[in-house]
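Quick question: what would this complex look like in 3D?
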Amino acid sequence: MNINFNQVLLFAKGALTTIELTLISMIIGTFLGLIIALGRISKRKIIDKVTWVYVWIFRGTPLLLQIMIVYLAIPLLTKEIFGSAIIMSRFTSACIALVLNTAAYLAEIFRAGILSIDKGQFEASKALGMTSRQTMIHVIIPQTYRRVLPPYANEFIMILKDTSLVSSIGLAELYRASEKLSSSTGKWEYLFIAAGIYLLLTSVATRIFSKLEKRYSVYI
Amino acid sequence: MIKCENIDKFFGDLQVLNNITFEIKPSEVVCVIGPSGSGKSTLLRSLNHLERITKGKIYIDGELVDYRENDKDLMKIESQKVTELCSELGMVFQRFNLFPHKTALGNVTMSPMLVRGTPKEEAEKNGLEMLESVGLLDKAYEYPSRLSGGQQQRVAIARALAMEPKIMLFDEPTSALDPELVGEVLEVMKALALSGMTMMVVTHEMNFAKEVADRVIFMDEGIIVEEGTPKQIFDKPKKERTKAFLARI
């Protein structure tokens, strides 16, 4: 089978979009997820409830549906409520949906990490006169890195593959590239090439996280 | 320095402290002894709000720091007041609770820098002095996982001392240590007592209590059964329960 330069370009662009979507959703999702995780452990009931509802909705509905709703429903909703529709590009819509979804899963991962830290660490920090904020930032969270890395890596790899769902709103990423090529030419090889590229990307990610895990296991 | 009046503590239906009243004067070393479950640790931990008493009053250095009834505050307690209180009460835990992701020096300097805003060079200089006073200057840059239990506990003591507390609270500091390592920690505590620090020590080390304590409090089932000088408690105990406990040791 012959692959011409245009097809290579198509795959490359698709892969690039896939990587962009993954990195954006993971990076922003991490910040948002951490905030939500802290909200879930908060002693203030209202913060706990609000963050619980957030996690409940974004973990409890399919990512595919969330992508659709952000892209299709938000313009219609804002038109009804505000009179003018907020129209976002496919890429922006995809990012928003991915970030909101990722943040919900990461929030639970971070929360589990924080809860797994020995109570004595909280007590020692308090006994030394530290505030809750200081305790979280300087004592607790740094100790969660090692515990949080394996499920975090999991989420990263999952999102990397789940970016394929944005093809449903017509965003050109890796899966769509292969799907378009294979359906227009009738050749199945393109699907396998996409699979190979996904595997390459996830393998690179796995390797990086492995190295990070080793780095954080030095002293704990 | 420490004054507790009519302290009650319930965990649900279980009464762990029953009308506890006692006092500790400045520079006094008081050892609290008693069987497991007698409430000694709970009493200690109530002083710095790690546990909240159900009822009673606690005065630290003449200031009312806790006043509760029915598990509710009868005075306004701001969180800033609590952190200030904690930084004046140094605590050493049975399980050390060192920060594993920091070196010994890191452990000792963290709180002065964060809580008091001490600049790094000054904190490190003081930190090294503290570590030297507990005999661990050469381990300043080691992580806790590389230290023995006795060394870890001594770092924990240095860490608490770095905050220059008025009172040091020890919650069974040697109970989790191998017998050979207990001595080095008790030596540090003895030196600290001799230097005039006010100390409240919950312990099972009777010899330490005999040698170092100014007063010994014997607790059982949530009440103070008897208190007095080490001579009074160990040589001439008055109450039957005290005698029975000492006989089993």
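Answer marked as accepted. Residues 19-172 of chain A form a domain with the MetI-like fold fold (CATH 1.10.3720.10).
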